[in-house]
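Two proteins follow. First one:
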Amino acid sequence: MRGPSLPVSRFDRIACHSGEALSLPLDKQIERPLGQDRPAREVAPRAAGMLPGPGRVGGVLLAGAVLAAGGVIALQPAPWRQPEPEVASTPADQPAPQPKELATNTEPPERTAPAAPSIIRVPDEDSSQNVIVIRDPSALGQDLRVAHLPDRALLEQSAHGPLPIRGADGRRPVDVYARPWSGARGARVAIVIGGLALSQTGTQAAIDKLPPEVTLAFSPQGNSIGRWMQAARRQGHELLMQLPLEPFDYPNINPGRSTLTTQATAGQNIDNLHFVLARTTNYVGVMNYMGARFTADRDSFAPVMRELGARGLLYLDDGTSARSLANDLATASRVPYAQGDTPIDQERERGKILEKLDELERTARARGFALGTGSAFDVTIDAVTSWVAEAKRRGIEIVPVSALANDPEKE
């Protein structure tokens, strides 16, 4: 309900934005909506079709001045900005050189089979070509963590058991089962200790005490050769099989069962060879056990050497017979060949053994390498173990026998 009317003569003065006075009755002022007395906003110049006012023109000019000053500063040399690096010009008909290590392709590469590991070897100092040689990964030898496991691709079954063979891909046991070495050209000494598996305690001592660089040779007359082979390979040793060959004054001096003789046929000798080779696995080749008469007989020895070459095995001659034809026959049959310089324990006395080892060191320093052979006697094992530790400190590298072999297939 509306209240009583006030006299019309009572007016209030209300100021408008133009400064004029507007008189309204008080009751009309009460009914007027809020905000009606606010001044009307100016119409934007663009909307009204009018030019901007003086204040806005000044703001535009100020903004332009700021932008112009920034452009001037950007174009100034030091100290306002660092100079751009100089870039050598490239002829128009030649492409600009690209950084060697900058990857421009962000797409993931196509997936391929992983490559086999390789060794990159710096060439010898006397090499006439400044090149980098990438060696065959098979020359690295078997990974020592699985060295006791035979490579099934390098075995064939026979009446005597598994025999070593070349793989279908050309790999040879002499490469796969070889112990890796540095490949350096310093003074190198290889030591081969034979007679393993004949004595259980002696074999255990040889495997446990001798440094892993020392090559071990197993007698086919021994026992538990497979078990000893695995223990030796886990320790990192390179292995050989000893091959009994006919000596002079045979059979009074008898190397043992399955001896290869000059009186046997080639087939009989090959069969005896297979018996020896099947006694275990994971070895790089064979070495003679006696055999002064057999190794001097070309007709008897040549078929055996050809069989070793066909199977990818190494032959080590202990060097005790000056009449041995092993070197010539190995070359003809493409067999990796090594020859011993001296037996180290013909006299089983520690001092004498150490003298022989020192002789090997002198030979290695003069010629670059030397190879000694011995047997698994306690005194030999102890002397070799202590000498190897001292020789390493003198800069001698102890290498496996395969490192010193002359390999016709790698010449």
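Second one, unrelated to the first:
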Amino acid sequence: MIRLSTDQISVGYGENLILNRLNVDIPDKRITTIIGPNGCGKSTLLKAVTRIIPYQSGAAILDGEEIAKMNTKLLAKKLAILPQTPEGPGGLTVGELVSYGRYPHQRGFGRLTKQDMDVIDWALEVTGTQDYKYRPVDALSGGQRQRVWIAMSLAQETEMIFLDEPTTYLDMAHQLEILELLERLNIEQERTIVMVLHDLNQAARFADYIIAMKDGNVVQAGDPESVISHEVLKKVFHIDAEIGRDPRTAKPICITYNLLRGEQEERPLAEQLHPDEETTLPVYRAAVHS
């Protein structure tokens, strides 16, 4: 089922067009990841469909209504966005920050009701941040802060959550922790999750649907099998990738890759090496960082 889509949407900064008549469908109650090189329009797409930035033409449609024309509080009850580097007022405790997620549901002078407090406590519990409730946000580690921001998004009680590079600046363990949390929210609560990721293997492992972008356009969209492939990665990242199978998830995995350079793009590897060069090439097992 598709509740959110774009129709020929174009977005630019000044005369620089970032998205050019882009058509995108976001599957409902699924995890969608957006991949692509820097500057391809991934973050711009997220900001456009969540109304953080305006679009020049076309439309973003949610439940049959153009997002640009929706009531702000109504929209905030349907979707939440966690930007790449979220910032809040200094000096807040964790509980105070998470309480900001209740804004769309408040009336009058905005005092928190018992229902609001129950939702806040639930969001803290689900994200494993209950013990931090009275601690200053500034005193937390990067992974802890990221979970607190996700708790604020959950307190908003939206059906859709958008996240722009939620694992940036986190170590491997904390990255996995955040992604497993989002996966659990999708499975147990049927939240629609849309996120920008740089790590191809994380995208393949956790996504039901992947959108691969380049130069403001969609190169390929579909399940991980159809996007994490040699040909698609060649078009999107200009790399020669070896694709294998994750032994734990059976999802496609980028095992290693070389950067394609000029004429080497179409030449066999053996012909690319000079006779006097080493024939053992280094293997890079980290996923592509665009």
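SUMMARY FIELD: The mean pLDDT is 88. The domain at 2-272 is CATH 3.40.50.300 (Rossmann fold).
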